[in-house]
């Protein structure tokens, strides 16, 4: 039996535009998904999932049949979640040349589902690591990232960048531009505060919406390119350790994402509350539509402001996690 864990992430800059080859800078945060894999005597896959951010739920899953949750979890999210685990196990079987290996898999995640914090990538990364190790094979983080990307690509119908999976596998702040992925070294302390509205966005629909807009309107194509400019300026600010400039650029990035139609009333309310709470900057993180915002604030003004914001269900500080995927004792 092997347990591995992998971190979630926030996007400092660049979500959506990264799908069109612009750079993005996601940062791993100290909130992890833990996956335990135990080899079974047969070829079945049985999944037990405890989502630590909602009421616990358990689901049994055999082969292609979707189990029935015993508490109320959004059905599409659950089905999608099982798709990720199924494909992750397929990758482990492939890597270890063990096509008939069956597993009991247990997932415990402290990362809200579908909320822009990379929950699915963290589960997939940890699942591939735990299942391959259980089969006696040790993959390096770059190969796990690559295999996890293939899983996301498959489950999300070809609409996925390498950003989430690379970031979760490697930890720290990373830069992703097309297939070119690398860690950013010597990152300053980034005082992230996350606000969560308790909801989630439909990544596939949001990505498709931006694609249509970009095809129809020049302004949308220009907006995607402008996000790329903000990211490049953000990289300079990060290298210079200039938090004020980083915050200002996060504000610009949020405005551009709003122009592309991927923000929401609660995401905007949380972004504005963070700014009024003296955050250095704030933006939505991930696909948008609902879920989380990330603000930069070394003091407690943002946390206090978000606690009094209608629509904000929870607030937490999220330290940069410099460690990526790892085996748990
Ligand atoms: O909401 P998340 O954490 O799945 O992030 C989606 C980020 C997008 O850029 C919108 C899509 C992608 O695959 O990069």
Overview of this protein structure:
With 329 residues, the protein is α+β, with helices and mostly antiparallel strands. It is globular and about 55 Å long. The strands form 3 sheets. The protein has a 5-stranded mixed β-sheet. A 4-stranded antiparallel β-sheet has the order 8-9-7-10. Strands 5-6 form a two-stranded antiparallel sheet. Helices cover 40% and strands 23% of the residues. The chain has helices spanning 75-95, 119-134, 141-155, 163-170, 203-216, 218-240, 243-259, 265-276, 301-307, and strands at 2-13, 25-40, 45-51, 102-109, 173-177, 180-184, 192-196, 281-284, 292-296, 314-318, 326-328. Helix 8 crosses helix 9 (301-307). The longest helix has 23 residues, at 218-240. It has 2 domains: 2-184, 2-Layer Sandwich (Ribosomal Protein S5, domain 2); 192-318, GHMP kinase, C-terminal domain (Alpha-Beta Plaits), CATH 3.30.70.
Keywords, please?
329 residues; alpha+beta; EC 2.7.1.36; five-stranded mixed sheet; Ribosomal Protein S5, domain 2; globular; galactokinase activity; binds (3R)-3-hydroxy-3-methyl-5-(phosphonooxy)pentanoic acid; Alpha-Beta Plaits
CATH class of the largest domain: Alpha Beta
User: Which architecture name of the largest domain does CATH use?
Assistant: 2-Layer Sandwich
Number of domains: 2
Distance between the termini: 11 Å
Series of H and E elements: EEEHEHHHEEEHHHHEEHEE
Main sheet strand line-up: 3-4-2-1-11
Brief digest:
ATP binds at residues 112-122. Residues 236-302 form the GHMP kinase C-terminal domain. The chain has 329 residues and is α+β, with helices and mostly antiparallel strands.
């Amino acid at each position: 039996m092997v347990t591995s864990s992998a971190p979630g992430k926030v996007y400092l800059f660049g979500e959506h535009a990264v799908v069109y080859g612009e750079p993005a800078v996601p940062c791993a945060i100290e909130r992890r998904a833990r996956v335990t894999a135990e080899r079974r005597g047969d070829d079945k896959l049985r999944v037990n999932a405890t989502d630590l951010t909602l009421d616990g739920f358990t689901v049994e899953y055999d082969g292609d049949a979707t189990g029935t949750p015993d508490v109320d979890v959004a059905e599409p999210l659950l089905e999608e979640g099982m798709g990720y685990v199924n494909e992750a196990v397929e990758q482990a079987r492939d890597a270890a040349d063990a096509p008939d290996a069956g597993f009991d898999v247990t997932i415990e995640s402290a990362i809200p589902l579908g909320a822009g914090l990379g929950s699915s990538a963290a589960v997939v990364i940890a699942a591939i690591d735990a299942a391959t190790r259980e089969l006696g094979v040790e993959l390096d983080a770059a190969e796990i990232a690559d295999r996890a990307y293939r899983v996301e690509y498959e489950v999300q119908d070809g609409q996925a960048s390498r950003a989430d999976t690379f970031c979760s596998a490697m930890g720290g702040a990373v830069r992703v531009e097309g297939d070119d992925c690398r860690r950013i070294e010597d990152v300053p302390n980034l005082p992230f505060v996350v606000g969560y509205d308790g909801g989630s966005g439909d990544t596939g629909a949001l990505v498709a919406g931006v694609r249509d807009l970009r095809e129809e309107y020049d302004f949308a194509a220009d907006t995607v390119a402008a996000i790329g400019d903000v990211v490049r300026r953000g990289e300079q600010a990060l290298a210079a350790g200039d938090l004020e400039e980083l915050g200002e650029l996060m504000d610009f990035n949020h405005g551009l994402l709003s122009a592309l139609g991927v923000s929401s009333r609660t995401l905007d309310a949380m972004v504005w509350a963070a700014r009024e709470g003296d955050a250095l900057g704030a933006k939505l993180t991930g696909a948008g539509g609902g879920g989380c915002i990330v603000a930069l604030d070394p003091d407690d003004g943002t946390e206090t402001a978000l606690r009094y914001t209608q629509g904000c269900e929870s607030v937490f500080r999220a330290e940069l996690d410099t460690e990526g995927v790892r085996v748990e004792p």
